[in-house]
Automatic annotation (TrEMBL):
Residues 5-223 form the ABC transporter domain. InterPro entries: AAA+_ATPase, ABC_transporter-like_ATP-bd, ABC_transporter-like_CS, ABC_transpr_LolD-like, MacB-like_ATP-bd, P-loop_NTPase. It comes from Alkaliphilus hydrothermalis. This is ABC transport system ATP-binding protein. The keyword DNA-binding does not apply. Signal peptide: none annotated. GO terms for molecular function: ATP binding. Keywords: ATP-binding, Nucleotide-binding, Transport. Gene3D superfamilies: P-loop containing nucleotide triphosphate hydrolases (3.40.50.300). Pfam families: ABC_tran. SUPFAM superfamilies: P-loop containing nucleoside triphosphate hydrolases. Belongs to the ABC transporter superfamily.
Length: 223
């Protein structure tokens, strides 16, 4: 299977009190389209840091990250961030004073479609993810947590990025809603052919994924 995103001997750490603390040590891992991955591991092991590197919010101290075989340094970190990856967070990160549709439209490229068309496409995505038209037209603060996370997922899908990164996307949800969102994350990979990489503390989310990695002592190991 063709690798979409590859970590090649990636080492990264932070300087803490004048001392460098390595978080990832020579990590080699590759991610493909159409697959739902999870990264689990103890608190502070570097899961969020791994997503930050995948999205070029941070850059490796040693080693390289490739997108479709090309070093993202050569692609350009901001281009990679803008075009190839999109992030979903535990607290949804929606714009509070806008409706669900308007939030999804914000995730789209402005390029050549009219605003009316973009709104229609946003409504279709929200419908596909289980929101009614009435809910889609509502201010996002008047939606439940699970519905807000669906809006965040619709916004991610609207972006056309191949890689969807999610940091604890079910962390604020009750068990049933968390299960529904997990099923949607699975669909992002299997139905929409995205490369989905989810950081989670939930064993249930890990069990639902195609490939689960355990991050411990600076290394990712498939479990
Ligand atoms: N900007 C930073 N500067 C210094 N240290 C940092 C910085 N960001 C993270 N760290 C440290 O790096 C380590 C890994 O952090 P990270 O957030 O990646 O862990 P995590 O596995 O996602 O943890 P959790 O499960 O608690 O969210 C932690 O010890 C953290 O304190």
């Amino acid at each position: 299977m063709e690798a979409l995103l590859e970590f090649k001997d990636v080492t990264f750490g932070y300087v803490d009190g004048g001392k460098r603390v390595e978080i990832l040590n020579d990590v080699n891992v590759s991610f493909a389209k159409g697959i739902f991955y999870t990264i689990i591991g103890p608190s502070g092991s570097g899961k969020t840091t791994t997503l930050a590197l995948a999205s070029a919010l941070d850059v490796p101290r040693k080693g390289k990250i490739h997108f479709l075989g090309k070093d993202i340094k050569k692609i350009g970190y901001s281009k990679h961030r803008r075009e190839n990856v999109v992030l979903i967070f535990q607290n949804y990160n929606l714009i509070n004073y806008l409706t669900a549709i308007e939030n999804v439209v914000l995730g789209m490229e402005v390029s050549n479609s009219y605003k009316g068309e973009r709104k229609k496409k946003a409504l279709k995505l929200l419908n596909d993810l289980g929101l009614t038209e009435d809910e889609a037209k509502r201010n996002v603060l008047k939606l439940s947590g699970g519905q807000q996370q669906r809006v965040a997922i619709a916004r991610a899908l609207a972006s056309n990025a191949d890689i969807i990164l999610a940091d604890e996307p079910t962390g604020n949800l009750d068990q049933d809603t968390a299960r529904e969102i997990t099923t949607i994350l699975q669909e992002l990979a299997h139905k929409y052919h995205k490369c989905v990489i989810v950081v989670s503390h939930s064993q249930e989310v890990a069990d639902a994924s195609d490939i689960a990695f355990h991050l411990k002592n600076g290394t990712l190991v498939e479990v």
